[in-house]
Amino acid sequence: MTLAFIKQINEYVIEATIEASDEEILACVGSDGYPSQQDIHQARAVITRAVKEQRQYRLSQQKAAFQAYKQEQKVSQNVPPKRSIPEMLSDIVTAMQNQDKVPEGIVLAFREQGQDGSEDDIIEIWKNLVELGLIDPNDTDR
Q: Do residues 92 and 122 touch, judged by C-beta distance below 8 A?
């Protein structure tokens, strides 16, 4: 017997099992060559435990990645911008003129907030637009 022949037999067994009705499968449980009810419960418990452990592992990985992201964001928000006020103003104007990316209500809010703004206001607006993804703080090609 070759490995290909054994694989083909396994495929036939799998196909016959899939096509069998629930009653036929349940009638075979405990017969010679078939698992007992206890074997089935043990296999189910092992599979359930493995799935649960894998889910917990993935969840812990995602939590760790999210915590790292939050820490990175916190650090980047606390770092003073490396742009001068005129550069920030230029970034803000450029971002606001990009009609394809700017959400509709942002322009009105910017106009209301931007009137008679101090340097702190400009910095705050710039940071908000960076946070929204409308300005790339690392873009120095201007």
A: yes
